[in-house]
Input
Amino acid sequence: MNNYRTISAPSEGIYKEKGSKFLAFAYPVTHVDEVKELIKTFKKDYFDARHICYVYMLGADRKEFRAVEDGEPSGTAAKPILGQINSKNLTNILVVVVRYFGGVLLGTGGLTTAYKEATIDALCNATIIDKNIEWDIDITFNYLQMNDVMKIINDTNATIIQQQFDNVCLIKLRIENINFDETLSKLKNTYDLKIGDYPQK
Output
């Protein structure tokens, strides 16, 4: 697996039923800290809403996720939101659905439909993209090795995202998953070059 599906930019959706409004928001995210900040903002901006339910999914392997019902009956909010994220095989995404109660109880079936339809609307308004899985690693080496290191970087299409050149040089590289093993092997074979922590795949 060398890529994953996510959304390119935030999007919104809405569903109305018997006076209740369900406002859906989808965001591309890469870390749980981003999720926490966004939820904090939602709770501030929509302080008068009855419920703020959300689901996030992180990582190319789609193993890190959380589903929050925020007081709604179990399975009526987060489950249908998660179901729509899974149906499109998305990750690195946060979907928030804000509910304003309209005075008429919808029942569990009505709630499930509402959260599902609001999420569908938000995701239909999003642009879904495939992104390459990438890894970041740090390397340090002697300045005299610069030519050898730069040749490896160019040959493997790695991207320099940070660099510091002195007698001892530091480079942070971003490497696409498809080229990771080859790049790592070549770097390991470079005399006296040191590699920082890297993912064990």
Observations:
- The chain has five helices and eleven strands.
